[in-house]
Design goal:
By secondary structure, the chain is an alpha/beta fold. It has 18 helices and twelve strands.
């Protein structure tokens, strides 16, 4: 993909996709961009890296504007970044710098639209109104890293040595077409299969992960197990869409090849097995994040399993709600039929920021500091982007997930993250993934033939991306 100037790239509207950090955690609306501050400016702290390209004489701006789609990163900063003081739900301070949280939900592409407009005005914005730091997801990362909107990490003074312990795939996602690293993440998102312990004991006679894994070891076995669960009155997943990411992360080609929309063979395998499961009443067709999809978080929902990374089980499956399976420690984790990843959140410095030193320190503390990252695991049950920390904690007998009934699942995540292949990502993934699932729902529910559903998909994607053909 050729590097594009910001005005050209951000003119392309991309549809919002799966919400990392969970749809049910999103803020209710858009926060005002900035509030004028009266605090004094402070000198930038540039002592971490010897070859720091942030000028030592530079002074930090009075306002740090952060753009994000929910409060997940804000909660990480509040809980784990030294020196952050909360003022209210959308404001805080770091030393003399005011932090303003510009939170716009992902729905209907609102977050990207709001961010794009702000970035297009970056050159003309006052110092207190500039975008300083913003967050992106894997499905549209290339839209921003392959543009002039993002600042190279090296220009902040962050070195290869600083990021040496991070998982390579998390760096690959935010490396531009010229090989320049443009963002960092505090988390890794390898996925597993979360299943109900009670249902496993009732139907299989055991809830031990190694034994349950035998029941879902590959897709043929998974389908046979779905039949077994149906006979006992349960669905293997809440929706056909639950397994979608497992298939889409194991493709052998990109969504777009030489400007033409391409449906990978593995995506069609998902369609085939999903149609069989839906027709058999073994999964539903609910949209992920919908109320019907979420019913399986509770025993009366009669759903055996969900596919996802650590953030799904800990932040999205009602673990804080009395009566839920997670609240009772009733889930367990096993590898499932195939390894995959889902989501992730990356921190980017906006080109033109006047808070480079503060952003550098946030990135170093939250994505490179092993002690802080271990605290994130212990306090938040997240899987962090630090290989030594995760390797150590995967065998730490003192660590256990309450949501998973005392299980330590980190070894599964560690094994899965090493197998991730990001070579087939493209800038069109978010729109294609969402539109494909939407189109296939018509097929699953009997409202369209397979060819008609494909045609709906092609037309929807071309409407979003007129430069593509099919």
């Amino acid at each position: 993909m050729k590097r594009k100037v910001l005005s050209t790239l951000l003119a392309v509207t991309m549809v919002a996709g799966m919400v990392t950090g969970c749809g049910n955690k999103e803020a209710a609306g858009t926060t005002t961009a900035t509030e004028a501050g009266t605090t004094t400016e402070k000198e930038a702290d540039n002592t971490t890296a010897a070859d720091n390209t942030v000028t030592e004489a530079a002074e930090e701006g009075k306002v740090l504007n952060v753009y994000c789609w929910n409060d997940e990163f804000q909660r990480r900063v509040k809980a784990h970044y030294p020196g952050y003081t909360e003022v209210d739900a959308t404001h805080g301070t770091i030393g003399d710098v005011q932090v303003v949280w510009n939170i716009t939900p992902n729905a209907d592409n609102a977050y990207q639209n709001n961010l794009d407009e702000a970035l297009l005005n970056q050159a003309n914005a006052s110092t207190d109104e500039k975008v300083d730091l913003f967050l992106i997801e894997a499905d549209y990362a290339l839209k921003y890293v392959d543009s002039d909107a993002t600042m190279p990490i090296a220009d902040l003074g962050i070195t290869d040595a600083d990021t040496a312990n991070q998982y390579q795939y998390t760096k690959d996602i935010v490396t531009d077409s010229n090989g320049v690293l443009k963002g960092l993440s505090w988390q890794g998102c390898p996925g597993v299969m979360f299943y109900s312990r009670e249902i496993a004991k009732e139907v299989f006679g055991t809830d031990e992960p190694a034994e349950v894994q035998k029941k879902v070891a590959d897709w043929d076995t998974y389908k046979a197990t779905a039949d077994e669960l149906k006979a006992a009155g349960y669905q293997i997943n809440s929706s056909a869409n639950d397994a979608y990411r497992v298939y889409s992360n194991n493709v052998t080609s990109k969504w777009v090849v030489d400007g033409k929309i391409n449906i990978d063979e593995n995506i069609m395998k998902w369609v085939e097995i999903s149609k069989e499961l839906v027709d058999a009443g073994e999964v539903g067709t609910h949209d992920i994040w919908s109320d019907d999809w979420s019913k399986g978080f509770y025993p009366e929902g009669k759903v055996f399993s969900y596919f996802g990374p650590a953030w799904l089980i800990n932040f999205c499956m009602a673990a804080d709600q009395e009566g839920s399976i997670g609240n009772q420690g009733g889930w367990a984790a096993t590898e499932g039929p195939q390894g995959f990843f889902w989501g992730g959140t990356w921190i980017c410095a906006a080109a033109g920021t006047d808070n480079a030193a503060t952003i550098k320190d946030i990135m170093l503390k939250l994505t490179c500091d092993e002690a802080i990252m271990k605290d994130i695991v212990v306090q938040d049950d997240d899987f962090v982007n630090n290989k030594p920390a995760m390797d150590a904690m995967s065998t730490d007998a003192s660590y256990a997930s309450a949501v998973l009934g005392g299980q330590n699942p980190l070894g599964m995540y560690c094994a899965g993250v090493e197998e991730l292949d990001l070579s087939n990502l493209s800038a069109y993934d978010q729109g294609c993934n969402e539109e494909f699932q939407r189109a296939m729902k018509n097929y699953f529910e009997g409202n369209a033939t397979l060819d008609e559903a494909k045609d709906l998909f092609y037309k929807a994607v071309v409407e979003k991306y007129p430069e593509l053909t099919y």
